[in-house]
User: What shape does this take?
Amino acid sequence: MKRVRTIGLLMLLVLLIGSALVVTLGRSRPSPVGFQAVVEMALDAQRDLDQVGKQATRISEADEMRLGEEIARRARQWWPMASSDLQDYVREVGRRLARHVRRPGIRYTFHVIDDGLVNAFALPGGQIFLMRGMLQFVETEAELAAVLGHEIAHVDLRHCIDLFHYELLVKKVAGAAGRVFGGDLTEFVIQATGQIGVLVHRILTMGYQKQLEFDADEQGWSLAVAAGYDPEAAMATFARLDDQFGGSAAPRPPPRNPAAEIAGAIRTAAGSYFHSHPPTIERLRHLRQVKQANAAGLAGQRFYIGRWNLRHLTPRSREERSTSDEFRTY
Amino acid sequence: MAATLENPVSFEPLPGEEAAATAAGTLDGRPPGFGRRPPPDEPPPAGSSWFEQLRASLSGEEWEAVVGGSWLNKLGALILVIGLALFLNYSYGHLGPAGRVATGYAVGLALLGAGLWLERQERYQIFTLGLKGGGWAALYYTSYAVHAIDASRLIESPALGMLLLVGVAAAMIAHALQYRSEPMACLAYFIGYATLVISPRSDYSLLASLPLLASLLIASYRREWDQTPLLGLILSYACYALGYGDVFWRPPLPGALVSGKAILVVHWLAFEAFDLLEVARGRRSTGAARAVFPVNAVGFIGVALLHAPSGDPYALPHFLAMTGAGYLVSTLIRAWLRPPAGFAPATPILERALAGSYEGAVSLTTGLLAVALWLRFTGFRLIAGSLLLVEMLFVTGRQTRQSFLRLLGLLVYELGALYGFHLMVTVEAARELFGLTMKAWTPGLGLLIAVGYLDALLLPGEPAEEFDRQSRAGFSVAATLLAVLCLASNLRGQLHGVAWLALAMILLEVARRTTRPEFAWQAYGLGALAAGTMVVQNLARDAGPAAWEPWVALGGPVLLTGFTAWRLRFGQSGNLPLDHVPPVSDLSADVAVGALLGLLWHLLPPGLVALGWGVVAVVAGEIGYGWGWPRLRLHLQVVLALTFGRAVMANFTLLGDTAGLSHRVLTVVPLLALFIYEWLRGAEEASASASGSGDGDDGAPLAGEPSSPGQAAGQPYPEPFRPGGMTLAERDWQWWWLYPPTIMAAMLFRFEFGRVGMVTGWALLTVGLVAVGRRARLGHLRAQSYLLAVMTFLRCWGTDFLPPSALPGEFDPNRVDRLLAGFAVVLAFFIAQFQLPRREDPADDGQLYPFDRQFRSAFCVMGALILTKLIYHEVSGHALSIAWGCEAALLLAAGFALRDRPLRLSGLFLLFFCVLKLLVYDFANLEGPWRYLSFCLVGALVMGISWAYSRFRDKLREYF
Assistant: This one.
């Protein structure tokens, strides 16, 4: 027994020290040290539990589209819309992407707001809004596709409707209760209580909003690639966004003492909970990992870039340039 | 006890002296009845204080007589003499010098004659004192004025003038001696000194004080007066302080023949000689006699300091040094006259000093020399000089076995140490020595420290003589404080801890080897300070720029404290108290392990720290188990917990790879092995301990511990320090080692395969945990598997095995993976189900976890639900009902084949749901062949299943 134990001990020590040597000899990259892993595990579990409730009380696609159209109507009243040629161009590109979504029952509608802000957003039921500034920021149709893909993914992955999920549910339950039991007071009490619950739920689920952005980036990239657009376009867009808008601060030097490391870890974990969007540099890193994971599927394929198309606001579906600089082959 | 108005203070004679004094006459040595007022009619009550007695005596009629007869008499004589002096100096100008002198002598003789004539009558005894004293004073001053004062100068020769004065003084002394009257003599001397003060100063006036002094001391010595010399002492120095002080430093007049310094020195020497003679004769117990030595010193030095010149920086130190030398001679004489052996051992130092022993003189010598050094030197010279003085005292004290001298040495040393602290605060300059850059004061302080420790070590250990314990503590504590601050000033903050620890270890070694407990306490305090500093400076502040610093700052403490811990535990504890050994050993081991962890943090890349700590845990554990060292086993637990925490913080977000293997896997897998090994090792030890004594104590005595029960009755080592196997508490807490591997494995799957792809890993882990937990009868493992299964199910339910990048249709490269993952999870759940017992197993020894049976069904339900949902996503559309029907049939078939009721029930429920869907949804929505195909196939399945139930109805009872 003692001999077995001694052999086991030696093997363990060899494993521990050998692994350390192997890691030292390999390719290392600067890695964060903190509570990210724990936080992500906790947020995963929170999200799983949240999904159980949402799947059990799912909002129908018709209701979702109704809600989206209502909000979009107000948005259109609030913001000026861009010229029709821009609207047409974006719509054409967007529709090409929407062919590949998981929920084909959703009708996607694309709007271009006449505003110089570099931004885009999505509403439930497939209402996608793009600012004119974003259209001027992107340099190719593939990059536009990446941006639209990201917003479509928010709709397709139910991120948008999930924000209104319990609110709609409360409204429905309150209405039904009012009808069954009679009286506005009952409806008001249920709705008020429900709204408080919705608020609490939003605060509790705030932590994994960043994860939703990563998911939308990932599926948006897939949508653009599935539509035949350059897989590098999304990365190029994020890199330029990071350059121009300073999305990522200068990397902090690694802590040089354990106390500073712990303090930094606590600070980062506490602060990151309330961030709705991850830093651009992290999104860029994540997209690169996605591309690397799908490298086998990309091999040998040719993808469209569409620099000319964007410049001339002519969608690829109408004219696809055959010059070599408009394609990227893997 | 004597109490008179003239001498109202009472003195307690020393034992043995009272009889001698009584034999000679009275307690104060005066002849009976002389100089005393008649006894009161009603004597004050015995035992009351002199003040009460005075008040009682003044409360009657007699106070008036006292004031009028005695006090006014003396006051009148004084005023008369002063008036005479003024007369001789300034009065009417029509009298020549001869007339003035004649007048003075006439007045003096008249007063003296009146006094002599009246003293024959008893009632004028007191009154005549003033007359006689005033007469003598007048004669003395007139004789002084005959030469010294211009207005009455008849004698030009100073020698002749002085002879005249000496003659008068001699007559006065003779007269005083004849009467044996101390009050009279006091009055006369007072008047004599007063005349000196009011006279113009000159060589002659200085010299005139000498006969006065000589007559006073001789008379006092002869008559054994104790107040007269004290009065003379005070008057002499008061005279100098008021009118002649500056002549000490310069001649009284330009071209003066007589040195004021010499005259003052003569005074000092005379009084010192008087005191020595008194000592030689056997000191009396009266306070006045005792005060001669200190008052002489204070007077002499005080008068000198009062007029010390400011221009010459060396004058004062030289004076103090010379005075110190003088007192050194006095010390030697006193030591010879009153050897310390002549005193009872318990006699207090102050009592001995007042009785004329050498202690007072040597203290004064030391003080004067020390102050002289401070005034004369600075920097290294002052430190060296102080240390020279220290060593002189110390060595002399050691050779003569006089602990008081060693104590004096300590006091001087402390002064030197204070100067060292002053230098540290005020001097910023640096210097090069032997190629090392250090603070300029470092060599001097190094010398101080070395001497302090050397003297502390040269002093005898316990049991110590009087003062030696304090001296040892004083030397060593001061040296330690100096060393601590010296190291702190010369080293970077990160190195303070190691430097102080090294010093603490040396101190501890001294305490271990010698009987000097103060070294041990210093070592403990310094060790604690060093450990705290090491933590703050190295774990909460950045390391220095040099790569070697962590090695020294943290590696050094590892070796030092590790060695100490080992030595105290397994070596000889030496002279350390037994109850000190366990905490010191354990705390040293704590510091060693803590410093090692800190060192590894600094040296290793972030991703490898956990591995390094893991190795530390293994080593600590092996030592703890192998050598029966409970503290090391505790360290194993703590370091394992830290390793786990560190891995969670750094290793799951680790980027990079080696040969295609991610660094996450490469670092986490060994840690998993570590935890598993330690659990197995702990289980083996726990088993061995349980089969042994059961309390983890093999009863073997430790090194240095008393082996016999009789010896052990005093200070046995406390229980946790005794060697042995695992204690019950350790065994009770061992379960927690089972959790980190599972958590790390689950996290590894999560971060290696992503939020969705990891479910396969979790499912396989679930099966593994159930299997091991069931076979090894480890409820904790099974509990982990249940929790993991629920989490896996929720993840599968929420994500449907679909990563965000997965899209339906042509671009779905991961579809096969997804299907495989789904089926793997389902299969894993069903396997897990069959790992668990159908019912309570008698062979399970009652250890079956309460949830086991419930989770047997839960695994089945979860597997069926996931399979159903997977089919829903993959076969969504027309053929869904058929697919679900097939699934239900499969579940039922498996349930029959495996004799498993949960499987059968799951199949039945799904079948009912399928029928419901057919009737409610498919009937309305399906079109064409899919509608009747669904109905037909599902109907056939239902029929077949119904047949099976009918056919195997009897068997079902057995299956359940």
About this structure: Chain A has a mean pLDDT of 86. The first helix of chain A runs from residue 2 to 25.
